Amino acid sequence: MPEKKLLILNKQQIQQKLDRMAYQILEDNFDENEILIAGILPRGNHIAERLKTILDGIAPFKSRIITIELEKQSSSLSANIDFEVEECSNKVVILVDDVLNSGKTLAYGFGVFLDVPLKKLRTAVLVDRNHKSFPITTDFAGVALSTVIKEHVDVVLDEEDGEEDAVYLR
């Protein structure tokens, strides 16, 4: 018997959420010259790239993508980055992922920047599940879902999955 999936966001709704998040990021950083958008691989990076594209069209500041690859199953911070962390000094960093579940991924993402004096560190996620095991909050969220622990949120993005954008609850 196939597993049941409930459509939470379709392609158009995802775009609307990302547009709104980009405007919120713009409002929060209007007086900046440059912001860094740190996407957590894999899907967080795709969302970061989409936010950058929107911001490039509406914002007076420059935005730049940086990529973070985390070893999520590790009990300690293990990250590969495509930038020198010192480049982030005294800058605004927006840490982006697809789903905020327990908060572990974003907590590890924060760890990358612990030794650098940032101007501001914000978080952005497409879906906030409200099941945090770590003291993490999100500054910019597409949608907040109150789910039970056994449910799973699937974010499908055409860049990665070859299917039309959608968010499902299963």
Automatic annotation (TrEMBL):
Which stretches make up the Phosphoribosyltransferase domain?
8-159
Pfam families in UniProt: Pribosyltran
Question: Does the record bear Iron-sulfur in its keywords?
Answer: no
| Record's keyword annotation contains Secreted | no
Keyword set, alphabetical order: Glycosyltransferase, Transferase
User: What's an example of a GO molecular-function annotation for this chain?
Assistant: glycosyltransferase activity
Name the record gives this protein = Pyrimidine operon attenuation protein / uracil phosphoribosyltransferase
